[in-house]
């Protein structure tokens, strides 16, 4: 057992009954005689729940004091959040390219299977009618979004439609509850949506 008053940065936290799961690469260090701090080597993965435990039998102070009960604390990192979306407003093509930029790594195919496209009469376009845009096209089409944020390579999904959309129709892109992350097992707990509209047919408005 190691006294809590120790300031040895190389102590084994298991001797103090301290555990953090899932395990994270980093270092525990004392910042005084009563405060123990963990410094992660890298950013914590998103969409992950962490559990900190301090075993009452192993955590012993310099004067042999023990905890009355085990200390237990949970915290979670954020689930996927959409930072940017395109297109907005009225689009000039019936096969628009849609782009969603997330704040963390995602699986393009997983998100494409999860999202929904609904037009104004309530009809949902089947996911089989959507297809991913290749990386080169996505970089050309959405360069401003991708260049404005660092490390975006695995954080976006870009897709288009296999068939022409209807004219003069509003379409809503929905990301329902349960959107997965590529960084951890937790999924979103709220729905996100955004809309665009296709152009109207040619018509004479004055004569």
Task: Outline the structure in words.
By secondary structure, the protein is mostly beta strands. It has two domains: 13-76, no CATH class; 82-198, Immunoglobulin-like (Sandwich). It has three helices and 14 strands. It has a five-stranded mixed beta sheet with strand order 7-14-13-9-10. β9 and β10 (124-125) form a beta hairpin. The longest helix has 7 residues, at 108-114. The radius of gyration is 25 Å and the shape is elongated.
Quickly describe the structure.
The chain has 207 residues and is mainly beta.
Question: H/E order of the elements?
Answer: EEEEEEEEHEEEHHEEE
Main sheet properties: 5 strands, mixed
Strand sequence of the main sheet, in spatial order?
Answer: 7-14-13-9-10
Rg estimate, integer Å = 25 Å
The structural domain count equals 2
Distance between the termini: 93 Å
Number of helices: 3
Provide the descriptors you would attach to this structure in a database record:
207 residues, mainly beta, Immunoglobulin-like, 2 domains, 4-stranded antiparallel sheet
Chain-wise SSE layout:
Elements (H helix, E strand, L loop, with lengths): L17 E4 L4 E5 L5 E5 L8 E6 L16 E6 L5 E5 L2 E3 L6 E5 L5 H7 L1 E4 L4 E2 L4 E3 L2 H7 L1 H5 L8 E6 L8 E6 L16 E7 L9
Parallel strand pairs: 7-14
Antiparallel strand pairs: 1-4, 2-3, 4-5, 6-8, 8-12, 9-10, 9-13, 11-12, 13-14
């Amino acid at each position: 057992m190691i006294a809590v008053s120790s300031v040895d940065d190389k102590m084994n936290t298991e001797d103090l009954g301290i555990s953090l799961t899932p395990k994270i690469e980093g270092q525990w260090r004392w910042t005084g005689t009563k405060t123990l701090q963990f410094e992660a080597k890298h950013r914590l993965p998103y969409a992950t729940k962490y559990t900190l435990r301090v075993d009452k039998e192993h955590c012993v102070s310099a004067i042999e004091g023990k905890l009355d009960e085990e200390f237990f604390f949970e915290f979670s990192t954020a689930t996927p959040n959409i930072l940017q979306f395109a297109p907005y407003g009225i689009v000039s093509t019936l096969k628009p390219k849609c782009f969603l930029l997330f704040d963390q790594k995602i699986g393009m195919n997983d998100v494409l299977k999860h999202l929904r496209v609904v037009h104004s009469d309530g009809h949902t376009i089947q996911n089989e009618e959507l297809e991913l845009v290749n990386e080169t096209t996505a970089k050309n089409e959405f360069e401003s979004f991708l260049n404005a944020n660092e490390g975006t390579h695995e954080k976006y999904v870009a897709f288009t439609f296999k068939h022409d959309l209807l004219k003069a129709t509003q379409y809503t892109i929905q990301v329902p509850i349960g959107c997965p992350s590529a960084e951890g097992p937790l999924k979103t707990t709220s729905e996100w949506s955004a809309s665009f509209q296709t152009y109207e047919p040619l018509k004479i408005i004055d004569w």
